[in-house]
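Worked Example 4.2. Consider the chain below.
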Amino acid sequence: MNTKTALTLRPGRPREFDGDAVLDKAIIRFSEYGYHGSSISDLNGALGLTSGSIYKAWGDKRGLFLAALDRYMLLRAEAIRTCLAEQSSGRSKIEALLQHYARDSTGAAGRTGCMVVETAAELAVADEEIAGRIAAQHRKREAQLCALAVEAQRDGSLHTGMEAAVIAKLLLTLQQGMRVLGKTGATPEEMQPMIAGLMQLLS
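Applying the procedure from the previous section yields the following structure tokens:
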């Protein structure tokens, strides 16, 4: 998954930079300040690259943004797979996933925020392509949550008669809501009652 991108700093002196490492820095910048709040000059400083290097590697700021968004969604999917792999029952997977989001929604990570949430709020109305990517990501997450709800009901770890599709929407709403609250400095202590309340509702 690591990508090396050729970069020429001066004629006759080719250099390389780690493309994934640069995209990771771009993710932080765009998550914190958004697309419109990140000028090329801001990105030069955050990424440690010249404007020419950014344009050569990704075409323009939008190209860099889309590459960073794709990488962010890939990394999030990998983190979720790891989180779920450690659990046995459907209910424990649901609760572990909520706790995972709670951790990511507090402290420094919480203040940085979620690139998907930031992008949805800032760009989904004005940019059809980006809106499509965000909608597809939400559908993917919702389908995964629905599958977990079905699993929990089948293995008997979740006894609610609520439809799995409804459970999935509630879980997705809480996950995204925690990410928004985290931007304003919500603490782990503030997240736990929300998780406990929802899990009690689903019992």
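The chain has two domains: 1-71, 86-203. The first helix runs from residue 19 to 33. Compare this with Example 4.1 before moving on.
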